[in-house]
Write a structure and sequence with these properties.
Layout (H helix, E strand, L loop, with lengths): L1 E4 L3 E13 L7 E13 L5 E14 L5 E4 L8 E2 L17 E16 L4 E17 L4 E2 L15 E3 L10 E20 L2 E20 L2 E3 L9 E3 L10 E3 L11 E2 L4 E2 L2 E20 L2 E19 L7 E21 L2 E12 L22 E14 L4 E13 L2 E3 L6 E3 L3 E14 L4 E16 L16 E11 L7 E10 L2 E2 L7 E2 L2 E12 L3 E8 L7 E4 L3 E4 L4 E8 L2
Antiparallel strand pairs: 1-2, 2-3, 3-4, 4-7, 5-6, 5-35, 7-8, 8-11, 9-10, 10-14, 11-12, 12-18, 13-15, 16-17, 18-19, 19-20, 20-21, 21-22, 22-23, 23-26, 24-25, 26-27, 27-28, 28-29, 29-32, 30-31, 32-33, 33-36, 34-35
């Protein structure tokens, strides 16, 4: 809802609520609600101020999918559902839960000092809390019994092969201030735009770890269920309170031991500058850089006979960028971009179980260089736009994120991803719209401490992917109007590991919609997803994959006022 108050003040309140299950997956649900009020003062004036508050609560069941297994006599592992396992199979317990709350307050001030200079300042503070407990199915030798005469003997270990998982309560806060100035001016016939400023941010993370106990046996983490007929009830499995079963805490990597608390913080002080110069109306150059000073700390404390672990890391990074833009007409632009990015290992204090480790303290950050050349072209008097680009991304000291734990570590690998991306979007006629994309990726590991991985395809990177979506409206301004559309999402098979020994098959999904406008305010619509009910995979891990939503229909009635 929007409401103007006076000449230059307005308030807005946005709210949402959502509750859903997942077609094709048992016991999975998501409940979310959020509220975002804001007020703006001085709107349309040279100086304006906006204050926004954002809250979102999320309560869901995490889904870590089905294990990847290698059929006897073969060398490539595939999701168990590729061998006939029911796609509904979920290997969680009653303890699995992901509950989070986000509260953010943002203040934005913008002022036009003169026709040549505008300044702005954004200040944001946030409070975040999360309770997370998830089963992570691991496959042992019994999984292969799925292929023999008595598949009911195949078992899943819900504690996985990682020794966990470990439930935790996470409490974080952050504050960030970004100040920028934009100047527009001329020197002779050359037009300039300069943007400069600073960015200061601090993040604090506190994670309290909990542990399970099984049948009163301290140190035992066995928690198995049938692969083909899983049960979310596990007799004798107990989730302890704070420190109750600290002997069952998961060993943190890097020699930290079994710890009750993980505490991390990171401070980034950055400065940025960029300038775009129009040497001619049809040719411009843009160049700039961002400098950052990172200061990260990590501590694993209490809960173990081992000494507490305390690590820190400081890192200075400089990331330059250069762009050339040639616009021979209003409908055509040819461009070239080069940019370098740097990602320190200690950056991920909030989503990593161990952002720093003894073996990597002071480790060089991940560095990536991107080269891209492309063209953007408009057709049909600007109604239809097309883009084509060639790119090459070179990455050194590649950072790897374990989706199951959030742990971030350096692989030490060097990687190269190069290819082509094409897109077409817009209105072919007044009633007919089209969106289409295609991408080809040549993604290869070019260097690794594991010699056998050199030349292998980068995990999770498809070779080809494409989408197409088109809609057509009949009699748009008539009472009998009707819009219908459909499209295809397609993605090649992807490898799940650096050694290319586990694979998820290609994705093909057909979607469609039909809608009708009732007057100028009401809209009735029906959307269909994965109409072929194909077994696709939405989330992928090194040894697991989550089946994506099955055939789904969503009806909606909307009102605009």
């Amino acid at each position: 809802m929007n409401k103007q108050i006076g000449e230059s003040t307005a308030v807005r309140i946005t709210g949402m609520g959502n509750e859903n299950n997942v077609v094709g997956r048992d016991d999975i649900y998501s409940h979310r609600w959020g509220l975002a009020p804001s007020i703006g003062v001085g709107l349309g004036k040279k100086t304006s101020f906006t204050l926004e508050y954002f809250h979102q609560s999320d309560n869901r069941i995490p889904d870590y999918g089905v294990p990847v297994i290698t059929k006897p006599g073969t060398t490539i592992g595939r999701p168990a559902t590729e061998y006939g396992l029911n796609r509904h199979s979920w290997y969680g317990t009653n303890y699995d839960q992901d509950v989070s709350n986000v509260n953010m307050l943002t203040a934005r001030l913008s002022s036009e000092i003169s026709k040549h200079l505008t300044i702005s300042d954004d200040l944001r503070g946030g409070l975040y809390d999360r309770y997370f407990s998830s089963s992570q199915p691991g496959c042992d030798a019994t999984c292969t019994k799925l292929f023999f005469t008595n598949p009911s003997q195949a078992q899943i270990n819900r504690r996985g092969h990682l020794g966990g998982p470990e439930p935790y309560q996470q409490n974080d806060w952050s504050v960030q201030n970004v100040f920028s100035a934009r100047a527009n001016f001329k020197t002779g016939s050359i037009r300039h735009q300069i943007i400069a400023g600073w960015d200061v941010e601090h993040i604090y993370d506190r994670r309290t770890n909990y542990a399970y106990n099984f049948n009163g046996q301290n140190g035992t983490r066995t928690d198995t269920t049938s692969m083909i007929d899983p049960s979310h009830v596990q007799p004798g499995l107990l989730l302890g309170g704070l420190g109750q079963y600290q002997g069952n805490l998961v060993n943190l990597s890097g020699g930290a031991g079994r710890k009750l608390y993980k505490t991390g913080d990171a401070t980034d002080v950055g400065a940025f500058l960029s300038e775009q110069m129009w040497l001619a109306p049809w040719f411009s150059i843009r160049g700039g850089f961002r400098w950052d000073h990172w200061n990260s700390h990590y501590a694993a404390t209490e809960g173990s006979t081992l000494a507490d672990t305390r690590l820190s890391q400081q890192q200075n990074t400089l990331n330059p960028t250069v762009s050339l833009m040639y616009t021979p007409s209003d409908d055509t632009m040819v461009y070239f971009n080069w940019a370098r990015s740097t990602t320190p290992l200690g950056l991920y204090v909030t989503n990593s179980a161990e952002p720093l480790k003894t073996s990597t303290e002071g480790f060089r950050p991940e560095r990536a260089s991107l080269y891209e050349i492309g063209i953007k072209q408009q057709f049909l008097h600007g109604r239809l736009g097309a883009t084509a680009s060639l790119f090459r991304l070179e990455k050194g000291n590649a950072i790897m994120t374990d989706p199951s734990t959030g742990s971030v570590s350096s692989s030490g690998d060097t990687q190269r991803n190069q290819g082509v991306e094409l897109s077409l979007s817009g209105q072919i006629t007044r009633n007919w719209s089209l969106i289409g994309t295609y991408a080809y990726y040549d993604a290869t590991t070019t260097g690794s401490l594991t010699a056998a991985d050199i030349g292998k395809r980068i995990q999770f990177a498809p070779k080809n992917m494409a989408t197409i979506w088109s809609t057509y409206t009949i009699a748009p301004d008539k009472p009998w109007n009707l819009s219908f559309g459909g499209g295809l999402t397609w993605r090649d098979a992807v490898w799940l590991d650096a050694a290319n020994t586990a694979k998820v098959p290609h994705t093909t999904e057909w979607d469609a919609m039909v809608s009708h406008m009732i007057g100028h305010r009401w809209r009735l619509a029906l959307n269909g997803y994965n109409l072929a009910n194909r077994l696709n995979y939405s989330n992928m891990f090194s040894d697991r994959a989550t089946p994506s939503v099955g055939r789904t229909f969503l009806g909606s009635l909307s009102f605009t006022y």
